DNA sequence: AGCACGCCGACT
DNA sequence: GTCGGCGTGCTC
């Protein structure tokens, strides 16, 4: 008898164990390790998805009272041993259940979709009065979702179970693969000689079209789609159909892959310059010096991408696979453009905006080894690339590489694990490396390659810092400084393109009463409301709730309710007022909701269809526009003073990246930074394009303030809708922690978060500094124990990206 | 997380 | 006697 040990689909730690099931004889041949199955679980024998982790032969009969596996859920092994190891690493490193880790390595779209169906067996008037659902079902099966829609509320399992036990209804669960492979019909010659005969002997003019089709197929004897035949022979589909009826053409269905990007780009190979070739050399040699992680610090425009392309080409020529991570969707169109242009169809693309079907197809092309290069966002680090030998993480400082949902993995850590698994090499690249990575490179943990010249010898843009306090003094109350307006005008006249950066969307960022000081806040969040012009509504950027615009102050009734603080919408309006002839594009969350909107705006601007691009940080990354000569940073101060140890680093990175959009072509670029803190050292390092001085300054601050990389931070977020309980238990836990960890760790808090309420949920935090990785699990257990059965949730994160 | 079991008080 | 509220323990 075969016994399968499985991990069940649960996110509950207490349930996360290995469970054994008997493999029914008829499934013995079909089931293997790394395949999903459906198992009955718990008292109700609820059907759960599970992954088979091992199979054993059992001669004894002591296992006879185990439950049986219901059915298989996959038709092939979907998690190979390498990926199982990877999931195991995730589970141990980041606190999560086995299945939460496994979900990362399977294409999420093939997670099974469940459909419960019920039917009526016996009518019962009393019960029908009590349970409304009984009035909506008949003697044939109907989907529970349909019934829920009809009665307008959820039906819980216990009700179903009760009615089932009483013999009133029957319940069945359908489990099916949610996504089916896309198929396409193809047509081919059944017998070439027969077709040849037909063509030669035909005298009938009305069959001329059929002969044309046959000649095409004789010439190129393979299967064609109907569209291909129509294009080649210039006929309609009726012609093909009649050939099928005559028995001259065969028809069959094949699986096709959906194509997420058109492949009409071409990116030719560029001769590498000396610095670039040296980078390739150092990286390829990194194996031999025993350190296979390399950090490339290359200024914007230094041609890091060419280095990546060279490395990938060399790797695939030797039969290896590669993964390239890019920060997020904003980078995808242009990066993919370059990679596809050079590497063609050998590359698969994975990112969050793919449809379920597209993602499934790409995943399978990779899994089956049909492609061996993957480019994608964070989760692409889990792509099951065959023979993986090279991982490139571009813009390595980007915070999007760290997941903010459980498991809170860091793609950089995962990458290090994967290359150690395969003895591969890892390349981190950035114009503004993260303080942590640069520190590691300086200390010899990583190899360091610095490319300090732009590849095409274009010079870095001149940066001017404008003191907005002076503007005020001179009577300019506008969002734009005099100089910025002048520069915009000049550049418009010269037909150059301009980018204006404003890291806030909406029209104005807060609404306030001049007479009583009232500030419009979200009902459910500790957040001021942003006014949006396009729908004339106030909106909360944290929960999405929208409000009507008040005409009078809700507090004192005064008419002097005013809008303060500018967002991208306002900038757009001001520009339209100042330069009515200029063509303006805006790129922010509001204008890019639709699929393909990013690409559209990007292409339009790149093709010169607009003069000015206004946008939030999504325009800061990667985008390569040759004709942009002016970049205006409307307000540099927004991110500078946030209570987060990374705010200086983030501001420097953002300004450097936005500045890097200027002067990438032949023309010299100029950057204007508007600020109320012109003496701030961070801004001045950015002005001088001086990452190394910035690093030296910031690393001292980190040391002084005892922040990473000198320590690790464990951030525990406590949330509850009950504020009093939250405060009470936060302090109670703190007392226990002080008793147990006083000598081991520095414990800060409890204190309310910067944003102390979101969606009616109050937020407090406790912060640990020190060797937190040693105590991570123990502290988790403590919180878990104390908060069990309390109305308080907690989440833990090491060196979080977001501490607000 | 569900669900069952069992102990105990309240109520026709 | 019996209903139901919730504390406890289990899930192959």
UniProtKB/TrEMBL annotation:
This is Replication restart protein PriA. HAMAP family: PriA (MF_00983). Belongs to the helicase family. PriA subfamily. Component of the replication restart primosome. It comes from Caloramator mitchellensis. Binds 2 zinc ions per subunit. Initiates the restart of stalled replication forks, which reloads the replicative helicase on sites other than the origin of replication. Recognizes and binds to abandoned replication forks and remodels them to uncover a helicase loading site. Promotes assembly of the primosome at these replication forks. One of its GO terms (molecular function) is ATP hydrolysis activity. Pfam families: DEAD, Helicase_C, PriA_3primeBD, PriA_C, Zn_ribbon_PriA. It catalyses: ATP + H2O = ADP + phosphate + H(+); Couples ATP hydrolysis with the unwinding of duplex DNA by translocating in the 3'-5' direction. The keyword Nucleotide-binding applies. Residues 548-705 form the Helicase C-terminal domain. Keywords: ATP-binding, DNA replication, DNA-binding, Helicase, Hydrolase, Isomerase, Metal-binding, Nucleotide-binding, Primosome, Zinc. It is an enzyme of class 5 (isomerase). Its cofactor is Zn(2+). Zn(2+) 1 binds at residues 513, 516, 553, 556. GO terms for biological process: DNA recombination; DNA replication initiation; DNA replication, synthesis of primer; double-strand break repair. Zn(2+) 2 binds at residues 522, 525, 540, 543. Its EC number is 5.6.2.4. It comes from the Bacteria. Residues 285-451 form the Helicase ATP-binding domain. One of its GO terms (cellular component) is primosome complex.
